[in-house]
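Much of what follows relies on a compact textual record of a protein's fold. The record below shows the convention in full:
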Amino acid sequence: MAALSFSVYAQKEAEITALTVAVAGDKPFVIYNPDSKSLEGISLSIWEKIAKQKNWTYQYKYFDSVDKALNALKQGQVDLLAGPISITSERVKDFRFSQPYYQSSLTIASRDENASFWGKIKPFFSMQLLIAICIFLSLLASVGLLFWLAERKHSPEQFPADPKKGIANGMWLAIVTMSTTGYGDMAPVSLKGRVVAGCWMIISLIFATSMIAGIASTLTLSGFSSSTITQVEQFPGKKIATKMGSPAVGFIDEHQGKTVLVSTLTDAMEKLKNKDVDAVVFDRPQLLFYKNKHKAENIHIPNAEYYKQGYGFAFRNDSELINEINLILLTLSEEQKIEKIMTEYIGDN
């Protein structure tokens, strides 16, 4: 019986020595050079380790879209599909998948306007903040005027008859009182002046806290009004680009964004750069890889991740390769060889 089992196993090994591997997907999982026709990437590095352990020979067949590659797999033109293939409920109806070799997710890429000097100081020049400052100065001028009217006859050395100098000193006294600095260089001496000072002390306690809260709120809202998109709550009404066929299409629609479909991730990022769209939603590792290769474009990618999904190798439903490949994938994962491959391409992100 043992000899028979070994014979059957050896026969199966002989049957799968030559494989046609479909390849499709984006960098860094699939990197295709159209000039040299060469292929490399994370998915292919993992596959090549599997094939080496099994002594399988194979040839790659490149497709410019995952949908075309899946169609070829379904028609029996290839034996399996390698690339960043998301394992979704829809795809599982027609194909079998290996265990995930990488857990991906969707994320957002947008222009990082705050990376420039103007982006950092822009909130301080917002209309709301300028209005708040004007109200504050008007209030100080009013209190300064009241101090001058109350004190000019009783303390002319502190509050001269000249309105400009007198009101200016009154404003200085109002600022010192509000900030509780208490330099002692100026103080009201008349009853009216002390009443004004007392009322201003109470009012300034309320006003100062309200003013600080208002300025903080203004700066925060100004930051939100920036074109840097960091969360899905900013999607409504915004143009969001993604690749055709990506799970991101439904994600954008769900959060009321205006979906802009493109053929490649490069097209999407070009639209972002040219300000044709407000953001790009796609798989996180691909966006991180693009950002690392295009640092000058000031791309912002937040820590938020959505729609967790696994990448695996795809097979026809009648394929007998899956169990053997899963066993090797587990071994590679336990030995942290997959993690090392990931680090080579996208770093520790």
In short: The chain has 13 helices and twelve strands. The longest strand covers residues 102-111.
